[in-house]
Structure formats: structure tokens, C-alpha cells
Amino acid sequence: VRPAGTGSVQPSRSLTLIAGVVEARPGCPVERPGRLCKARPLGDVRVEARSPRAGVTASARTRADGHYSFRLGKGRYVLVAVTRQVVPRCPHVLVSVTSPAPVRANINCDSGIR
User: Fold this and answer.
1) Measured between alpha carbons, how far is 57 from 80 in angstroms, rounded to an integer?
2) DSSP string covering 14-75
3) Does residue 32 surpass a pLDDT of 50?
4) Which of 13, 20, 3 is nearest to 95 (CA)?
5) b/e map of 24-47 (b: 16 or more CB within 10 Å)?
6) pLDDT at 6
7) Angle CA(82)–CA(54)–CA(95) in degrees, nearest 5?
8) Strand 67-72 versus strand 55-61 pairing type
9) Which residues have CB under 8 Å from 19's CB, separation 6+?
10) Is the pLDDT reported for residue 2 higher than 80?
11) Can you tell me whether residue 54 is helix, strand or coil?
12) Given 12, 65, 104, 107, which residue has the most CB atoms within 10 angstroms?
């Protein structure tokens, strides 16, 4: 514990909202031209923001509708959807935070349905 008045004041870091949805595609076993299946939202999936220097810097769990959000400072990150199974397979998504404007980052996973 530091006595009051002896620590330096750190400037407030500007954080940017990162939000998106994690979905699995295709959502049904047979897709036909003109009759595409809706993607299936993936709920209760951990989404991590990883920085090359700091490792995992933020994480959130998707809601039942697949949506997630968290805030990040300026920099480059890799978003990783951590699933507990082999499928769905989710690609890593690169994001760059350069301004306070919100960033939309959807993660489209392969459901494995063929």
C-alpha cells in the first residue's frame, strides 16, 4: 500500500469498443441455391483479444445470441473464439484499434456440417 500523494498519476487510456457476433456456418445439413440456411449463433464461447506483446488482454463470453463485446486500447490484436470441441472451427480475426470509433469484428466459424 502506497501512502496517499506519493504515486504518479497515470493518464487515462482511451478504450475502444470491440463488438461482434460468433456464428457457425452452414447452419443446416443441406443448403440449396435460393434456400440458404441461417448461420447458427454460438453462445457461451469465450472470445479473447490477444496482443503479441501482452498475451490475452481482454476476454468476454458470448451471449446466447452469439454477441460479445469488450474494450481495448490502441494496438493490433488477434481475436480468438475458444471452443471446447474440434468443431466448430473458428478462424482468428485480426483487428487494429487506431481511433475511439467502435470496431465491428464478427467471427464466422465452420460448423463442420456437409
Assistant:
1) 12
2) P-EEEEEEEEEE--SS--BTTBPPPPEE--S-EEEEEETTTEEEEEEE--TTSEEEEEE-SE
3) yes
4) 20
5) bbbeeeeeeeeeeeebbbbeebbb
6) 44
7) 60
8) unpaired
9) 67, 68, 69, 102, 103, 104, 105
10) no
11) coil
12) 107
Cell of 18: 470491440
Looking at 12-16, 33-37, 74-78, 109-113, which range is the least confident one? 33-37
Q: Tens digit of pLDDT for each residue in 35-79?
A: 778 889 999 999 999 998 888 999 999 999 999 999 999 999 999
Of 105, 49, 46, 47, give the one whose Cα is nearest residue 73.
49
The residue whose grid cell reads 493490433 is: 76
pTM, to two decimals? 0.81
